[in-house]
Amino acid sequence: MADKLTGNLLVGQSGGPTAVINSSLCGVVQEAMKHEQIQGIYGAVHGVEGILKEQMIDLRQESAETIDLLRQTPSAALGSCRRKLKESDYGRILGIFQKYNIRYFHYIGGNDSQDSSYQISKLATDRGYELRVIGVPKTVDNDLDVTDHSPGYGSVARFIAIATRDAGLDTEAIGVVDTVKIIETMGRNAGWITAGAALAKEEPDDAPHLVYVPERTLDLDQFLSDVQRVYDRLGYAVVAVCEGLKNKKGESIVASGSAIDTDSFGHKQHGGVGDFLCDVIKNKIQLKARCDKPATIQRVSMIAASSVDLAEAYQVGVVAVREAVAGKTDFMVTLVRQPGKTYSCTTGLATLVDAANKEKKLPDHFINPEGNGLTEAFLDYARPLIGGPLPRYARLKKRLVKREG
Amino acid sequence: MADKLTGNLLVGQSGGPTAVINSSLCGVVQEAMKHEQIQGIYGAVHGVEGILKEQMIDLRQESAETIDLLRQTPSAALGSCRRKLKESDYGRILGIFQKYNIRYFHYIGGNDSQDSSYQISKLATDRGYELRVIGVPKTVDNDLDVTDHSPGYGSVARFIAIATRDAGLDTEAIGVVDTVKIIETMGRNAGWITAGAALAKEEPDDAPHLVYVPERTLDLDQFLSDVQRVYDRLGYAVVAVCEGLKNKKGESIVASGSAIDTDSFGHKQHGGVGDFLCDVIKNKIQLKARCDKPATIQRVSMIAASSVDLAEAYQVGVVAVREAVAGKTDFMVTLVRQPGKTYSCTTGLATLVDAANKEKKLPDHFINPEGNGLTEAFLDYARPLIGGPLPRYARLKKRLVKREG
Prior knowledge:
Shape of chain A: elongated
Number of domains of chain A: 2
Number of strands of chain A: 11
Order of helices and strands of chain A: EHEHEHHEHEHEHEHEHHEHHEEHH
Oligomer: homodimer
CATH topology of the largest domain in chain A: Rossmann fold
Strand order of the largest sheet of chain A: 3-2-1-4-5-10-11
Structural class of chain A: alpha/beta
CATH architecture of the largest domain in chain A: 3-Layer(aba) Sandwich
Strand content of chain A: 15-25%
Largest sheet of chain A: 7 strands, mixed
Number of helices of chain A: 14
């Protein structure tokens, strides 16, 4: 057991808000309250932005009930940011830590946030300022490499799975009007969120019929022939696409698509990948197409939050404080899936430098050979994360009444 | 009490699927099973499309459990359609009714569907074919005039309210990146769905800060100055807009906007009103802007369905069959709000011709004088329909730590 390090704790939230990042905040605060060496429990307003401005909330002033309610409150209650720190910022931050006797620092976020934590931790060591830095993972993008999965991902995957199933039933019911439904999901470089759509499928003909992730380049001719084939078989098609889809040259397909679109003058196009692909479908294979783009709703929606995700997000917050109190520093808490038939996860630690610098994309064996769907291996990986099966719906047998005359 | 009319019942679903149209179907089927004069219980596959093709499902072949599950199943389980019938179709339909001894007809839908029912009912009377036609209201657009509100509306309003609140928290947390958030809702001519966003607001500074409905023409300069004013006060802005927004000439603002946009060549623009307004904001007042467009997800999402809406949708189905069995015909079931402080609704009847031909828009006193928000009168009207308060979230007091030195 390390010597007791007495001082204040600072927690911050960074990057895109999620349904569960406040659960991690709650875990940090509730665990911190159990340790007498932790005096002030401070929350950075808008992450490192607030630290640099010396804007910190006194979380001990909040009622126990409010802190508890954080577990069911989406978005980032402290405020978030996307500031990429400069070299000179780290010195300023450390100076502020010294001024406010911050001895425990927990930054909840993705790769960039873990990198910020790493730089601060390194500088503290260099300057001989005793500081315990344990990062808390969070990203809907699920692209932190050192953890089995990241808090935030299970909930966005559940939202996209439910949205895809519901939009699929909608399209099946009224395919005569909305023949091709495109669901555009978030994800710049990694297709984890888009892949979540695959969890909607229970029977072979269920939506989604096609899923395109940025780990594969999109060939528009192949895409159109895929859509046409589904339409020919079912009379409608439901397609999940990632906002980050790129062509062979590595350009966004929206920017690159002007050559095949009506607008060949290179003018700025409104909308994203989904609207663009709808127009391509209308122009090239003359099918009606429509895009659903839940955008930020997908990442913060509490109504579809995964119970597993919520619990794990809380737990990584708790463990971060426990490990710091126990003397650890310069780590990020990870989720470690245990072997066995029933899903279970424990926590582990990865060094901050490892957490910061590796981006995890969908591995090859999670994507089908055609590049238009996910494999069973992906489904096995993702299914436990969304917190139980999707709500049960009726499926009519649809026995036709015998034709008369 | 009318003579017992023995024969088969046909139920169909029409127009855009909703979260609750299957609850109405369930109500029709479960009530029909209680009446011995109703023999076959048939479901039209894709509404009038299926009738014309003599494609009907035998709903007595479905298990009681499946029928019951319809109450929690979104979209239109029988399949829906948008076919506008021609004069000659009505004769064909009546011929098919005679051939299959259809004596009870319940079409679940909006204005057009009630008009189809009206035409079929009139022709049956003219030809002396005894037929009981009682329409069942359904439309997320809430534009049926003869009923206090329409089943489907409460659920889409709840979805939009929750989405707006969550997206608002997201924007508040990370306004530095997504400074202006636009939520584009459905609604071609009436702003009921967009108005639902107003239910997200609990405190004066909560999202949405601005709401634009098609009952008022959109002036882009006024819009930009509204957005700028909110931004100047809060540092971010959340705006709900209707997909059907029009300019003073009655044109869609997307089609009409090329003059002020970068593209002045009249080229086809991807995306809708929301993406268009984001680009206008970026170009004219240089704020970052982003659009959430849940599209069909909003109308079918069961995860945000209103318990009141689900119960009422079931009830109007039940009552339609009861009234038909009691001898009534040529009516649509309506919802009649009762006076008093606590919300309660009974059912009534409106003639099909009245139900078909009146479109209900937001009345003037539901829209604020500035044309950028809703009034208390609207909130009083809509709040009971969404089935109880929105989920409770934590609100931090945010007492700042005293600045050192």
